[in-house]
Amino acid sequence: MTFSFKKFLKTTIPLLIGIALIYYQFSSFSKTELEQIKNYFKNANYFYVFLSIFISLFGYWSRAYRWKYSLNHLGYQPKFYNSFFAVSISYLLNLTIPRSGEISRAVILKKYEGVPFDKGFGTIVAERVVDLLIFLLFVLTAFIIQFETINAFIFSHISPQKIALLTGFLILGMLVFFFLWRWAKWPLILKMKSKFKGLAEGMTSILKMKTKWKYLGHSLFIWFSYLMMFYVCVFSIPETASISFEIVIMGFIFGTVAVGFTNGGIGAFPISISKVLLLYGIAEEAGTALGWIIWTSQTILTIVLGLLSYLFLHLFNKN
């Protein structure tokens, strides 16, 4: 299998899954329900949608600004606008080939700021580790807050016997993984160990920064802006405007996971939002409309900002 064919599969398979999810979601609605979803779009309060987009810009800014702390730690002083353009372009490319944006960020910084690719990419990997830990903190918080609802949902859909069986398989799988990780010399395991070592080194470099608290502060602010971007959109539709903040957090978590499931979350994001809100008594039509409003507005922002950044990157670095 050639590299180009691998890239083709990485692009098309998630996209096809997204298209299939869109077909599945809308084919399950009647004509009346589809008309109702259309009316939600027509009558939505787009003030909150534009406010959501405005908040998202702070997330872009903070991510670009956070990057300078890890690069400064390595002895590099990149221009802020190049960092911002690189981040914006990376979001755009992630809509095509998942995770290709991270590579593009390092490539752009090497070309316009002279930062070696491996060092630039290492700082990006460290960012991903920090982002993952913060996201897991969201998941833990949501699980604690919504324990009763989650517990009731699980036991209403899965019998205690199946839960015990799944728990047993999980423990067995963890034991097998531990022994393979500790003693196996398979190429795949060795490759995973190498990547894990790189992640550990990236985290260690963050802990050694003089500005680590500022770095952490921006990391928390980035995720806060993501959450607020999601939250304010809730008020664009009357049926979802009254949901509690705890429910918003649940929707945000499942939506975040869905974004990584297909290209930019196409198909997966809206359907995940509708299913989560349905669990809390919100009509599926309203949840579907909200999911598509959030996804569409953020995707348009990503495309516009990415294309403008690509143009400005060349204009700002003519000399």
UniProtKB/TrEMBL annotation:
Please give the start and end residues of each transmembrane region.
Answer: 7-26, 46-62, 132-157, 163-184, 215-237, 243-261, 289-313
GO CC terms of this entry = plasma membrane
Membrane topology is: Multi-pass membrane protein
A Pfam family matched in the record: LPG_synthase_TM
What keywords were assigned to this record? Cell membrane, Membrane, Transmembrane, Transmembrane helix
The keyword Metal-binding appears for this protein: no
Family annotation (InterPro entries): L-PG_synthase/AglD
Write out the annotated subcellular location: Cell membrane
Kindly report the protein's main subcellular placement as a broad class.
membrane
Q: What is this protein called?
A: Flippase-like domain-containing protein
Look up and give the organism this protein is from: Flavobacterium profundi
